[in-house]
Amino acid sequence: MNKIHACIVLICLFFLGHFANAQKLPNVQQGSLRAPANIKVDGKPTEWGNKLQAYNNTVDVAYTLANDNEKLYLVIQATVESIIKKIVMGGLTLTINSAGKRDSKNAVSVTFPVYDINYPPSYFRFNKPKTLIGLNVDSLMNLHNKALSTKYKLIGLAGIETIKDSLLSVYNAEGIKAAALFDNSLNYTYEMAIPLKYVMLNNSKKIIYNIKINAATIDGRKLQFLPGRDIVAYTGADGARYILGNDPQSLELNISY
Known about the structure:
Layout: E1 5-12, E2 54-56, E3 61-67, E4 71-78, H1 81-90, E5 92-97, E6 108-114, H2 137-151, E7 154-158, E8 167-169, E9 177-182, E10 188-195, H3 196-199, E11 206-213, E12 217-218, E13 221-226, E14 231-235, E15 241-244
Parallel strand pairs: 1-11
Antiparallel strand pairs: 2-3, 3-4, 4-10, 5-6, 5-11, 6-7, 7-8, 9-10, 12-13, 13-14, 14-15
């Protein structure tokens, strides 16, 4: 299969910051790209040569979209603290439409990470130092990556007719992969892979795609983060506020204020 032509990019990302070498990259990826050989979705940018194809000036996030004969790949790098927190706690959605239309009809969406009642997020205590000099950076990197490993359990799906479940484990058998890690500069790399059989319709070789950083929600309910207590809350259908505990397995349904 030839390279897939990504003809329209709609970036819906929020917040501002600074990214080194931003002026050297276009705001939108300029053409299709063949994915590197032997690619591994592990949150490490090694295969990409630490050089991505585009940089979204609105939010200081760099990205590349590429494909091989079997899968479509997305890699994103973020260096700004507020953006990293937003992705960790709200997830990022890649929406793909191979019918050549901007609307969501017949589109496929994959979101990672996703949270539910069994695996709710807690406040992500990540404060990126202005300088790394004198710090034990490897320890900080390992600490944050361990936190991600406890949070990142689920991938959300919409629009894939052959997969009935809307949530998949990150260890699923359907071939949809997602992972993210910090490096020793405390930059955040996010990778996703989707088999082409799920997103390419009628032998199309063109896609319209949308990359969106989401607000933090559980089952459609927007979460409120209480950083001073390292917990999150949501407002229930009854109008009361409910607290989600620190333990990813726990849910305190009877506490409101």
